[in-house]
Write a structure and sequence with these properties.
The protein is of the alpha+beta class. The longest helix is centred in the C-terminal third of the chain and has 29 residues. The strands form four sheets. The protein has a four-stranded mixed β-sheet. Strands 3-4-5 form a three-stranded antiparallel β-sheet, with no helix packed on it. Strands 10-11-12 form a three-stranded antiparallel β-sheet. The protein is built from 18 helices and twelve strands. It folds into two domains: about 110 residues, no CATH class; about 230 residues, no CATH class. It binds zinc ion. Zinc ion binds next to loops.
Length: about 425
């Protein structure tokens, strides 16, 4: 079933219609809607909930002819329902977002894995997605007030009775457990079986089975070139908590995983109406930085696992003359070049660490084309004619994959520290 909602741009008065794919999840959370006004460039964030479209003062009576968007909180849109100038009669006969998406993939049952995943997210993630952001100020306060953290955790989970945690370590473990529960909701079987999860699975296995002295040596090599503590507390946990807090805007982008598609870019002409390019670019940049900064640990653990020593780099069976100190001195582009020499590191990280996108965002060279939903990344600020183009939904997918890898890096750091706590 679909419902039509009409609204106007508050700045220029242009009228729009949004044809919404209804399902009962709007009673569970506010559906995020992002519309870019083609008439004036205004970027509008609206929501749909049990009170209808908000803010309600943008609502208008229906219009005979207007720019029409389809909307689903979880499905990508096809071109048939993205930015179409339609009459009332044409809107009436246009197919729903669900039917269009089903046609796009050449079969009517587009629910399958995606439907199963969405149900799980509604039950196990949507109600708790704000926990991490709300607990972060308490857990990162120095010293952590164990009583206050325990009380906040109990208040969030609406637990009438609760046990006060005993010490800071127990608070941290509880906090990381919440991140892990989030991760398990996001990393469905199709991802866990894919090559993109393999590196983390191997490194985590190495951390758990390695001899404590061997692990402590690897940690020391890494801590000489960066502070794992600073990375965790000043960058990683806060960035991950911010994105998880609004994870719902990534649902249409995440659907690629449920279709078993991991290509970047996907090469599919699909659209998202849940998020705008500014938010995605901001997240892309901060997740990009957090991943580049933790590379010494990823590379160090990979070296320790494969070559027996975090400081030993081997390419094609030959030991290189460089050490972790040399690697840490490389700038971002050269770090990415260096990890490209390892097939697994390359496959896992390189498609998500696009320095052209990063440079364009840094220099405000990201340029959004409303009618095609393409983001142009002008990466060379001395030559504006050069740009790499990505569909908005593909940027959302990259952000989602970056988030998974950031969570994985957080678990590597915290499980290593936990194992070495008493050493
Ligand atoms: Zn406008």
């Amino acid at each position: 079933m679909t419902v039509g909602e009409y609204f106007k741009c508050p700045l220029c008065g242009k009228t729009f219609c949004i044809k919404m794919q209804m399902d009962p999840t709007y009673t569970l959370y506010d559906w995020p809607i992002h519309v870019s006004c083609s008439n004036c460039g205004n970027e509008m964030d609206l929501v749909f909930n049990s009170n209808g479209l908000q803010p309600s003062d943008l609502k208008i009576d229906d219009a005979e002819q207007c720019i029409t968007f389809g909307y689903s909180a979880v499905l990508p849109m096809t071109s048939a329902l993205y930015y179409r100038d339609l009459s009332r009669a044409e809107r009436m006969v246009s197919f729903s977002p669900f039917i269009n998406y089903s046609f796009f993939y050449g079969k009517l049952d587009a629910s399958g894995m995606l439907g199963y995943w969405v149900n799980a997210l509604m039950k196990s993630l949507i109600p708790y997605r704000h926990y991490l952001k709300e607990l972060y100020p308490l857990i990162s306060h120095q010293p952590c007030n164990v009583k206050a953290f325990s009380a906040k955790l109990a208040a969030l989970s609406e637990a009438p009775k609760y046990k006060v945690l005993r010490n800071e370590n127990e608070c941290l473990d509880a906090f990381i457990d919440l991140f892990f529960a989030t991760y398990k909701n996001l990393s469905i079987a199709l991802y866990e079986k894919s090559p993109y999860a393999k590196l983390y699975q191997q490194l985590q296995d190495f951390v758990l089975r390695a001899d404590e002295n061997q692990l402590a040596l690897a940690r020391d090599v890494v801590n000489k070139v960066m502070s794992l503590d600073d990375w965790l507390w000043d960058e990683a946990l806060e960035t991950a908590a911010e994105v998880v807090n609004e994870i719902q805007v990534l649902f249409p982008s995440m659907s690629f995983v449920a279709m078993g598609t991991f290509d970047i870019p996907s090469g599919k002409e699909l659209y998202t109406m849940t998020v705008g390019f500014k938010k995605l670019d901001e997240w892309y940049a901060s997740l990009f930085e957090a991943l580049v900064h933790i590379m010494p640990l990823i590379v160090g653990l990979n070296n320790a696992m494969k070559n027996g020593d975090a400081n030993v780099f081997v390419v094609d069976g030959n030991q290189l003359s460089k050490t972790m100190i040399d690697f840490s001195k490389l700038d971002t582009a050269n770090r990415i070049g260096a990890i490209s020499q390892d097939a697994v590191l390359k496959e896992t990280f390189v498609p998500l660490l696009n320095t052209h996108i990063r440079n364009a965002i840094q220099h405000s060279g990201d340029n959004f084309k409303i009618e095609s939903q393409i983001v142009e990344y002008h990466y060379d600020h001395t030559d504006r004619s050069k740009h790499d183009d990505f569909r908005l939904i593909d940027v959302g997918f990259m952000v989602f994959m970056q988030l998974l890898h950031l969570l994985e890096a957080i678990f590597l750091v915290t499980s290593m520290e936990k194992k070495l706590r008493n050493v």
